[in-house]
Design goal:
Number of strands: 6
Structural class: alpha/beta
Helix content: 40-55%
Order of helices and strands: HEEEHHHHEEE
Radius of gyration: 15 Å
Strand order of the largest sheet: 2-3-1-4
Length: about 170
């Protein structure tokens, strides 16, 4: 499965949750962020399709797992959970994990220390597996259907990846 196909499928999953996906610069320098107020996942234009697919999965994991107020940042275990879900979803579709992803996952995993309590590992692992399975299952429906884009909330959200990406050219849109 290509990273572009996975990226589009995950963008459609975001649309089912009422979120659009677009390319845009972040004033804070983030590679991706979920704008809960505007209901958008914003991706850095510097991302290639593989990176974009991973970041969409990462932000979807935050939306499914973490209750955050607008403007708050994720860190620690929340970041480890989101990175782990993204890793599992991409691996499910055969998107080879690059060195950057492995390094980011390793860096975030340092929050649990060298000898984390077994209960914490069980709880974290269970949550990651559950959410990764749900996201992969939702993406699978879109990968199988190859149907026209889903428009869940057409009055507020255009379900698609909008804007420009160096890899995809101007006007990337589902």
């Amino acid at each position: 499965m290509s990273a572009v196909e996975v990226m589009y499928a995950l963008a459609k999953v975001a649309g089912e949750l009422g979120y659009g996906v677009r390319w845009g610069e972040s004033t804070e320098g983030f590679v991706s962020r979920a704008d809960r107020r505007r209901r958008q996942i914003v991706l850095s234009p510097s991302l290639d399709p593989h990176g974009a697919a991973g970041r969409i999965a990462h932000e979807l994991a935050h939306l499914r797992m973490h209750k955050l107020s607008s403007g708050s940042r994720c860190h620690g275990l929340m970041e480890l959970e989101a990175e782990s879900v993204a890793y599992a979803v991409l691996a499910r579709y055969g998107c080879v994990v690059d060195r950057r992803t492995a390094e980011r996952l390793s860096a975030v995993a340092s929050v649990v220390g060298h000898r984390p309590p077994a209960r914490m590992v069980d709880a974290l692992g269970g949550r990651v597996v559950t959410v990764a399975g749900r996201l992969a299952g939702a993406a699978e429906r879109h990968l199988e259907s190859r149907a026209a884009p889903v428009h869940v909330r057409p009055t507020r959200v255009d379900v698609g990846v909008q804007g420009t990406s160096p890899e995809e050219g101007p006007g990337l849109s589902l």
